[in-house]
Design a protein that fits this description.
- There is one protein chain.
- It contains three helices and four strands, in the order αβββαβα.
- By secondary structure, it is of the alpha+beta class.
- The protein has one domain: Nucleotidyltransferase, domain 5, CATH 3.30.420.
- A hairpin with a 4-residue loop joins strand 1 and strand 2.
- The termini are far apart.
- Belongs to the universal ribosomal protein uL18 family.
Length: 117
């Protein structure tokens, strides 16, 4: 029997998470997208803590325009919060989603904001 779309994404996510991990010096930028919103977190996996987070639901994020434009704004917002927290470089975790569309827009927005990955 074929796997569902969600089950495929979770398999990919597990495979990728076996290879990458975040630390306090090089945190992991984890992306989650639903049909309406997009969320991003900088995670220190060694301590199990979220260092910085941003989403399209935050008041500081300009949630106008297409979903891709909103995703780019979330990427810029997380980059400014990360730089304020003293984080310059990160590891990108697309969380099993295809690096295309909204996920790519968020990554490009984070790069424009000053994060290196």
């Amino acid at each position: 029997m074929a796997l569902s779309k969600v089950e495929k994404r979770i398999r990919i996510k597990r495979r990728v998470r076996g290879k990458i991990s975040g630390s306090s010096e090089l945190p992991r930028l984890s992306v989650y997208k639903s049909n309406k919103e997009i969320y991003a977190q900088l995670i220190d996996d060694k301590d199990g803590k979220t260092l910085v987070s941003a989403s399209s639901r935050d008041k500081g994020v300009d949630a106008k325009g297409t979903k891709s434009e909103v995703s780019a704004a979330v990427g810029k917002a997380i980059a400014t919060k990360a730089i304020a927290a003293g984080i310059q470089a990160i590891v990108f975790d697309r969380n099993g989603f295809v690096y295309h569309g909204r996920v790519k827009a968020l990554a490009d927005g984070a790069r424009e904001g000053g994060l290196k990955f």
